[in-house]
Amino acid sequence: MRVPLLDLKAHNAPLKAELMAAVEEVVDSCGFIMGPKVEAFEKEAAAYLGVKHAIGVSSGTDALLVALMACGIGPGDAVITTDFSFFATAGAVSRLGARPFFTDINPVTYNMDVESARAAIEMAKSAGYRPKAIIPVHLYGQSADMKAIMALAAETSLAVIEDAAQAIGVRYPVDGHPQGLCVGAIGDMGCFSFFPSKNLGCFGDGGLVTTQSDALAEKIRILRAHGSRPKYYHAIIGGNFRLDALQAAVLSVKLPLLDQWHANRRRNAARYREMLQQTKAVSDGWIQLPVDVYDGLVPHSHIYNQFVIRVDRRDELKEYLKDNGVGTEIYYPVPFHRQICFADLAYPAEAFPESDKAAAETLALPIYPELTQEMQDHVVGAIDSFYSK
Ligand SMILES: *Cc1c(COP(=O)(O)O)cnc(C)c1O
Question: Name one GO biological process term (predicted).
Answer without folding.
Answer: polysaccharide biosynthetic process
